[in-house]
Amino acid sequence: MSQDRPLNNAELLSVLDWYRAAGVDLAVVDEPADRFAQKPPAPTAMPPRAPLPGDAPAAPPPLSGPVGGDPSEARQLAASAQSLDALRTALENYDGCGLKFRATRLVFADGNPEAKIMLIGEAPGAEEDRQGKPFVGRSGQLLDRMLGAIGLDRTSVYIVNTVPWRPPGNRTPTPEEMELCLPFLNRQVELVAPKLVMTLGGPAMQTVFKTTSGIIKMRGKWQDVTIGSHSVPALPSLHPAYLLRNPPAKQQAWRDLLSFKQRVEELGLA
Ligand code: URA
Q: How far is the CA of 241 from the centre of ligand 1 (A)?
């Protein structure tokens, strides 16, 4: 490709497609920066001077925000929250997890905080990031239909994710990101104190069941788990996004839903 001519529309679209496939879905600055043309700064012992008029714009913020957050800070903050509102405020003020700096907003929870049934998903996607609520995109619509099929809806369940900020490009949160957010999830579960939990998808199952096993092996098997200091029977099931990509798996998800419904009825929760 010639370096000199501007790209035509088809070429621009294919560049955008390539960005999207690579998980790039956010422009950090308006103008592109040619990193190959930049020279590393000369080492200097002088402190940086204040910017002057005419200086080049400051470098964009780092793509993932502060890294290497301190899990003990997260634990302290979460443990001191005595209500869900206080926990939300603590998360809004918490800067230890880099995911926050690439997300539009916090996605704390949806549904009924008084509900005795809790659903735990993986991480917000694009639509959740826009609206600030979990499971409001396509997989959320399927989740609503799945709940409806067993007589539940968002007034009878409380819905959260293992991490409350959207990972860039919808990638799976890293173990470090999950560790930094886990104290907040633990505290959310302690404060809601559900009588039944369902996890959706592999990462949520691995976090809640503290296992490295795969979801296909684990799904449908009830276990008593302890989340924070709260013990509760939990059922791992498949993620609605997976069911959208793989419709035959709805058969297995349906079996899980029927098993969940039976426990809900036994405990008189709906
Ligand atoms: N997938 C999740 O795991 N959570 C959401 O909130 C949306 C999609």
A: 8
- pLDDT number for residue 73: 95
- Report the pLDDT value the prediction gives residue 139, as an integer from 0 to 100: 98
Are 77 and 69 contacting, i.e. CB atoms less than 8 angstroms apart?
no
Distances (CA, A) of 80 to 33, 54, 84, 152, 187: 43, 47, 11, 32, 9
**Using an 8 Å Cβ cutoff, are 164 and 184 in contact?**
yes
Task: Quote the ligand 1 centre to 242 CA distance (angstroms).
Answer: 11
Q: Is the CB–ligand 1 distance for residue 206 below 6 Å?
A: no
Ligand 1 pocket, residue 253 CB under 6 Å: no
User: What confidence category does residue 192 fall into, taking pLDDT thresholds of 50, 70 and 90?
Assistant: very high
In the chain, pLDDT over 90 holds for what percent of residues?
Answer: 74
Whether the per-residue pLDDT at 59 is higher than 70: the answer is no
Q: Cα–Cα distances in Å, from 128 out to 2, 104, 172, 205?
A: 41, 10, 15, 20
Residue 37 has pLDDT above 70, yes or no: no
The response to whether residue 122 sits with its C-beta less than 6 Å from ligand 1 reads yes
For residue range 154-172, what is the model confidence (pLDDT) as tens digits?
A: 999 999 999 999 999 999 9
Domains and CATH numbers, the chain: 71-266 (3.40.470.10)
Residue 50 CA to ligand 1 centre (angstroms): 43
With a 6 A CB cut-off, is 162 part of the ligand 1 pocket? Answer: no
- Ligand 1 near 135 CB (within 6 A): yes
- pLDDT number for residue 156: 98
Atom number, ligand 1, closest to the C-alpha of residue 122: 3
Q: Which atom of ligand 1 is nearest to the CA of 133?
A: 6
